[in-house]
Amino acid sequence: MKKRWLCALMALLLTVGALCGCSAAPAEDEGEIIDLGGIAEEEIPLSGSPAVSYVVVPVASGTSTEKNTSAVIDYSNTKDGYIMIKWTGGSTSSKLKVQVKGPGKETYTYNLRSDGQYETFPLSDGNGKYQFTVNKQVSGTKYSRVLAASADVKLTDEFAPFIRPNQYVNFTEDSAAVAKAAELIADAGVTDNLEKVGVIYEWVVTNLTYDNDRANQVKSGSLTGYLPNVDDVMAAKKGICFDYAALMAAMLRSQNVPIKLVVGFTGKQYHAWVNVWSETAGWVEGMIYFNGEIWNLMDPTFASSNKQSKGIMDYIGNSSNYQEKYLY
User: Fold this and answer.
1) What is the pLDDT of residue 205?
2) Number of separate helices (H) and strands (E) present in the chain
3) What is the C-alpha separation between 259 and 248, in angstroms, rounded?
4) Closest CA to 169 of 58, 323, 282
């Protein structure tokens, strides 16, 4: 039966060739030298799959803006889950703050650079009405509003804010973290979101250690306004919880995996961890590493600094120990 099927296929191909005016090429003269080109015989392909990244770069399109001599708020791409803001008022020793208030209960407050470069801020509350403000310090904790804008946001999809870079999960196409993620995923040969999470999670918790010096600087107040630099964290192989979560989020977003960087509380401690989206499970809120039976909370900081002991894994596997406050 198989032989008859192959013969029929060959006959069909020959018929199509004849109808198209094709004919067999004459045989080359024996001994004639021809250039075959292509890959040399000694080059043996060893890679299972190419290292690929999916970095969606935010842009300030300029089609919808609010601006004055002090700042520019570009809300041209709210459908893609972000706005971009830059300070244009020149050098200043005063602190600058951005506030984003969406339909959720929390107001998000960010520091703003004064170097005239755009920064990206996510629309973490999803669809709804938003208010954006730029504020300049007057004294202490008192600020004056220098610019405001508003928008009615309708996202292209719910993942839009959690697949792109922003001020807290900051990476580019050229980031070392992006290249490392592509390398790890290619070597593992995985395509499923949760399989990608497993690969990146394992690398982070086995290669990073907790940075007690930086933690003490934050606690003492000698280090304020800290934002993770994912490439620096990866190079140093250490960080605080914020660094762990930001690095993991950057690596996975660059692999087209929607990730929420979550900031909230574990007990009385201010803490950061990640939630992930899977095609098979949807948003896995507070549950992410797989122990062979169930998915548990992904807390790469605790898992790494405590050597994944049973006690700590039981703790981070209990979502009641965690309280979300902000999503980035």
Assistant:
1) 82
2) 8, 16
3) 9
4) 58
Q: How far is CA 50 from CA 182, 205, 272, in A?
A: 8, 25, 32
Per DSSP, helices labelled H in 47-192 are 176-188
DSSP classification of residue 106: P
Please tell me the distance from the alpha carbon of residue 225 to that of residue 197, in angstroms, as a whole number. 29
- Tell me 307's DSSP state: T
Tell me the CA distances in angstroms from 98 to 62, 108, 183, 232, one per residue in order: 19, 8, 36, 25
Going from the C-alpha of 46 to that of each of 49, 50, 107, 134, 187, the distances in angstroms are 9, 10, 51, 53, 11
Residue 212's identity, in one-letter code, is N
CA-to-CA dists, residue 178 to 171, 173, 286, 328, angstroms: 8, 7, 24, 18
Reported confidence tier of residue 298, pLDDT bands at 50, 70, 90: low
Q: How far apart are the first and last CA of the chain?
A: 60
Helix, strand, coil percent content, the chain, rounded in steps of 5? 30, 25, 45
Asked if 210 and 305 touch (Cβ cutoff 8 Å), the reply is: yes
Q: Tell me if 166 sits within 8 A of 82, measured CB to CB.
A: yes
Exposed, middle or buried: residue 30 (CB in 10 Å: 0-12, 13-18, 19+)? Answer: exposed
For residues 67 and 149, what is the distance between their CA atoms, to the nearest angstrom? 9
- How far is the C-alpha of 250 from the C-alpha of 178, rounded, in Å? 7
Q: What percent of the chain has pLDDT over 90?
A: 53
Residues 6 or more apart from 139 whose CB is under 8 A from it? Answer: none
Phi, psi for 71 (deg, rounded to 5) = -160, 165
pLDDT attached to residue 53: 86
Which residue, 308, 297, 249, 256, is CA-closest to 279? Answer: 256
Q: Judge contact between 117 and 96, C-beta under 8 A.
A: no
Q: What is the pTM of this model?
A: 0.78
Asked if 314 and 249 count as a contact pair (C-beta separation under 8 A), the reply is no
